[in-house]
Amino acid sequence: MKTFRLSKNWLYLPLIAMAIFYLIPMYVMLVTGFKSFAEVDLQTMWNLPKGIHFDNYIEAYKHLAPSLRNSFVMVIPSAIISSLLGSLNGFILAKWKFRGADIIFPFILFGMFIPYQSILIPLVQFMRSVGLTGLLGLAIAHIIYGIPITTLTFRNYYASLPQELLEAAKMDGADMLGIYRYILLPISIPSFVVVLIWQFTSAWNDFLFAVVLTGNQDWPITVALNNMAGSQIIQWNVQMAGSLLAALPTLLVYIFLGRYFLRGLLAGSLKG
Amino acid sequence: MFKDKDRYLSVILITPSILAVLIFIYAFIGWSVRVSLSKWKGLTPDYTFVGLKNYLSLFSDPRFHVDIRNTLIFTGVFVLGSIVLGFLMAVMLDQGLKGEGFFRSLFLFPMAISYIVTGVVWRWLMNPATGSRISGLNLLFSYLHLDFLINKWHTTPTWGMAAIALAAIWQMSGYTMALYLAGLRAIPHELREAAQIDGANEIQIYRHIILPLLAPVTLSALIILGHMSLKVFDLIVAVAGKQLPLDVPAIYMWQTTFDGLFYGRGAAIGILLLVSVAVLIIPYIVYTQKTEVQQ
């Protein structure tokens, strides 16, 4: 068996080649970010910096600070609320089936996949007519369009729990809310982490809703970064530093909670 | 067995979510259909019915033809690239090598980043300048004496979309890897061992046992990636802005609606996108829900 394993060491060659492919954009982003303004030159973009400078990050932060704050303000509550809604819906659809629950579920699921271009005009018209533009409107859009995936994740998790768990609680006289509050909620913390991360990441990274629902006062980071990249005045090195700032929150979440992130990904493909 | 009070409560608690989905998804789709059948052009809504005029004019619109061609190129390169790369990475990582977790995390991290960030960085990597102003990946190729690889990336006529697809592969191939890896882990070891005892070699095992067992994973990957490529928008905007040679339906929809105020036409594009996604996704949802019931 041992020689069998040894013969597979050549696999490190393609694996390292792939690793380089994935790291190249990170390398350029980091290396450029740490160069001084004087050193920055497109023709030497692959060279390592001569020292550690923060000029690019400071400059990028000056441009992006308000929109970073906007993103946090909008993303955190919408991730929390859509996770709570998903958990409640998942519980009801999995364990408290009312007539028609199994018919409703696929209709909710379809909402996860629709191209938002097909609802964009009504969304903008509706939000404007009820005065829900800006960050609040954007947060509400993320909560509502997050319902399908959060419901799916929790429903799959709750469906996997043995029915006896609930029966026992019912015998003891617990009602529906009691079962949810004291039995299901405490054991669904890992699912909450999965869903919270997923919602945080997708709302943070969203561009389409943000660009139609917010104005330059309340642009979240993706819109601000894209506009920065499209501007002729702001240098590419500052754009690179700005990209890292925009990516950092979700990257940190990924680095520390990657396992949960992966589970969210698999849930999104309906594979549970 | 259930108390009536609990039954009512469960319906009451789920009603807001169902209403929200009903309104923001289904009623809005209906509303879009109505706009797409109207002659609304300009800032004030005009729902005068014009039948399929907006759709018919799209079918004879050269820009929409470019969009379809670009979407096909993007879909082909992106889906095929992500599936092949994802499968190979998953197989390599399934061999029990040391450092598997490290490589897996590395291949997957672009998934955590937005298309906008990816696009901004790749736009500088895919700098098409030549001669003394050469930079980005072209410069790297020239350092490595791989000059034959130097190309104009997304500014290449007709095939520029393939360069955008490359950035999308960078972002999404880790996802396909994760799908395949989960599929590989679900295959019982006894199956491989039995085949080994029967004298099958490694390649035969993959060809005749593992690949067929992974067919449902490949189907999921095809559908998920395929429907993503129909919707591609952010990535192209961030790499190239809104240039006609790299136009896709989502960008056309956005420009014609919000810049040009051709609401009727924009809604028609949105509905066409929805129909093409639905053709892929509805059978998939039906299929996954059925297999779930069987389990």
Topology:
The complex is a heterodimer of chains A (272) and B (295).
Chain A: H1 2-6, H2 12-33, H3 55-95, H4 101-110, H5 120-129, H6 134-159, H7 163-171, H8 176-187, H9 189-205, H10 208-213, H11 221-230, H12 236-268
Chain B: H1 4-36, H2 53-59, H3 62-93, H4 100-108, H5 115-125, H6 136-143, H7 160-185, H8 189-197, H9 202-213, H10 215-231, H11 234-240, H12 249-259, H13 263-294
Helix pairs in contact in B: 1-13, 3-7, 3-10, 4-7, 5-11, 7-10, 8-9, 10-13, 12-13
- What is Rg of chain B? 24 Å
**SSE pattern of chain A:** HHHHHHHHHHHH
The name of the CATH architecture of the largest domain in chain A is: Orthogonal Bundle
Give the structural class of chain B. Answer: mainly alpha
Topology order of chain B in helix (H) and strand (E) letters: HHHHHHHHHHHHH
Distance between the termini of chain B: 25 Å
The main sheet of chain A comes to: none
Low-confidence stretches of chain B: none
Tally of distinct domains of chain B = 1
CATH topology of chain B: MetI-like fold
The chain pair with the largest interface is:
A-B, 90 and 106 residues
Beta-strand fraction estimate of chain A: under 5%
Helix content percent band of chain A = over 70%
Q: Using the coordinates above, name the CATH class of the largest domain in chain A.
A: Mainly Alpha
Provide the low-confidence segments of chain A as ranges. Answer: 1-5
Mean pLDDT of chain B: 93
Query: How much beta of chain B, percentage-wise?
Result: under 5%
Overall outline of chain B: flat
Number of helices of chain A: 12
